[in-house]
Amino acid sequence: MANSVWVFAEVKDGKIKKVAYEMLSKGKKMAEKLGGDLSAVLMGHNVESLAEQLGHYGAEKVYLADNELLKDYTSDAYNKVMVDLIKANEPAVVLFGATILGKDLSPRVAASLAVGVAADCTGIGMDDNGKLTATRPMFAGKAFVDLYFSDNKPSIASVRPNALTASPPDESKKAEVVKVDVNISSDDIRTVIKEITKTASERPDLTEAEFIVSGGRGMKGPENFKLLEDLADVLGATVGASRAAVDAGWRPVDDQVGQTGKVVSPNLYIACGISGAIQHLAGMSTSKYIVSINKDSEAPIFQKADYGIVDDLLKVVPVLTEEMKKLKAEG
Amino acid sequence: MNIVVCVKQVPDTESVIKIKPDGSDIVTDDLKYVMNPYDEYGVEEGLQIKEKLGGEVAILCMGPSRVVETIRTGLAMGADKAVHLDDPAFEGGDAFATAKALAEALKGMEYDLILCGKQAVDDDFSQVGQMLAELLGLPHVSLIQKLEIGDDKKSATVNCQVEGGMAVLDVSLPAVLTTQKGLNEPRYASLPGIMKAKKKPLETKDLAALGLSADNVGCTGSKTMVIKMTPPPERAAGKIIEGEGPEETVPKLVKLLREEAKVV
């Protein structure tokens, strides 16, 4: 279907990731403009039951690739199945979430098809000629670029979680499930997973978090991050850190926000004791709302913050945690 | 073990990025350039493997003549030789066009392992390593945080970042691995290293030497093209919440977050 819009529906811990619903909601409008249908690609093992929800979010068709060899992600297996599917059906547009998996898989698929990827897009659209347009940050958000695609099909983009808004699901909508023959053997897979260890944290990844509580040099030491963990528990937030806090060994590398760490766009970013080095500001300035708590009223972070409190974070954060608890209790 | 590390020269992360009035590109006049920070982990890892198992580390870098400085940095850290892809035709390429040129260059090099930074901090594509692997028909693993070469040197065990944790994988070699913070602590170039670097072999290859046509690479070989660049949206000046201590300021903040921002 040369006018189809496809969304790769990533499965994590038996659930479809929210970014897939965000892309389906946008993809629906794009497919209407193209005069084509909206399809989702669902891969994994024993995942058929998830197809229904994709229909609720607008997918008219779900390509289901269910196979034991797809249980855990490997780039070789997922790439082969995805490329075979695209070659057989020739969609116009293929969207991936800009998650760790999506960013690993999409370039490989694109290279195999000799097309490009607009990576980590904060906006996508369809122009009047039916061509995909994309907006993405560069320099960790110090600049943005509008892109267009060559005529080679499909046009592929990876879309940053939280950048688009999911429409409410419509439970009356059903998708046709198309079972895909999975032509792979274990010989096709050149990486063998030996072990997957989960970090203790149940919190979402920083790049996908709706709320982030982040600490910097002003935290004074690793022990004070407990205050941020407590606040994060109340908010359902993920805890981040500045490079200074990571380089001091207070927090793991995974937690670093900024140009040499993670670029984040939560709805609310609470920066505690972070002065706001240019690399850090680049990495979080697309947050919808920014709160800064810092003793130094001259700290550059206050230039980016929507709300600021000039005070000692060690005193402010526990009060904020209590106030948030009260608020949550009120509902 | 022969290792090729793909390296890019990028503006220092300290840089303030200004955009040309016509939106075609950034203003490069006053930029200070450095080795892409994620590539430094690749160079360091290559050197550590060489020191343990022998072999050679080669740097592969594409860009105009200014990138020689970055190549020399890699050689001064301890790499043995370098290939510099230098041709005006390579300029302005997207990840695919870049991977295409690098893949062609790699076909003329000996390697058991290819290391790339997980992304360049200028374009932030995070694609070239994966595309390179596909174009060369090799497996890849991204975001590695630990690497051990197997006794037979035909496979490696890697720890890599996955969502919410870490995966341990065996991967057959040759392979492309992308490197990031946490893998190692990149060394600084020593003074003797810097002196030696000047005498190490540095081969320059242009488009013709790679046997590619201009249609394959750079701007014309790209599959995604820039319409225009813009600065990030300005954030309006925020409010400093006044009050005597957290007992006064915090309830005001919470009220604003609920009633004005509507985020909590």
Task: Give an account of the 3D structure.
The complex is a heterodimer of chains A (331) and B (264). Chain A is an alpha/beta fold. Chain A has two domains: 5-188, Rossmann fold (3-Layer(aba) Sandwich); 206-330, TPP-binding domain (Rossmann fold, 3-Layer(aba) Sandwich). Chain A has nine helices and 18 strands. Chain A has a seven-stranded parallel β-sheet, sandwiched between helices. In chain A, strands 15-14-16-17-18 form a five-stranded parallel β-sheet. In chain A, strands 8-9-10 form a three-stranded antiparallel β-sheet. In chain A, helix 3 packs across helix 4 (100-113) and helix 5 (225-235) packs parallel to helix 9 (313-330). The longest helix of chain A has 18 residues, at 313-330. By secondary structure, chain B is α/β, with parallel strands linked by helices. Chain B has two domains: 3-216, HUPs (Rossmann fold, 3-Layer(aba) Sandwich); 234-264, no CATH class. Chain B has helices spanning 37-53, 68-77, 95-107, 128-136, 191-197, 207-210, 246-260, and strands at 3-7, 9-11, 33-35, 57-62, 81-85, 113-117, 140-149, 155-162, 165-172, 176-179, 202-205, 224-230, 239-240. In chain B, the strands form two sheets. A nine-stranded mixed β-sheet of chain B has the order 9-8-7-10-6-1-4-5-11, with helices on both faces. A two-stranded antiparallel sheet of chain B has the order 2-3. In chain B, helix 2 (68-77) links the parallel strand 4 and strand 5. In chain B, helix 3 crosses helix 4 (128-136). The radius of gyration of chain B is 22 Å and the shape is globular. Chains A and B meet through helix 3, helix 4, strand 7, strand 9 and strand 10 of A and helix 3, helix 4, strand 7, strand 8 and strand 9 of B. Strand 10 of chain A pairs antiparallel with strand 12 of chain B, so a sheet runs across the interface.
